[in-house]
Amino acid sequence: MKDYIKFKKRLLKNKEIGRAYDALGPEYAFIGMIIRRRIERGFTQQDLARRVGTKQAAISRLESGRSNPTVSFLRHVADALNNELDISLK
Fold first, then answer.
1. Which has the minimum average pLDDT: 2-6, 76-80, 85-89?
2. Among 37, 38, 55, which residue's Cα sits nearest to residue 46?
3. Domains, the chain, ranges and CATH?
């Protein structure tokens, strides 16, 4: 773990890499919220997929950041987690 932390710090000293890393922050924070809510509710990815009306692989892609979900899909995920989807511009 220490090697990873040192490696990450060294990479982030590069301004271009640092900007790209910072740009992904909100995306990964949002993904983290979805995962936390799913776990808090005691749902597996399969459980959430069933509630959303999709396949487990779609939830896996969402949680790993490998998908570009529509607002409609995110609304279904939020509903399945008994949450509201709140999107804003600042």
1. 2-6
2. 55
3. 2-80 (1.10.260.40)
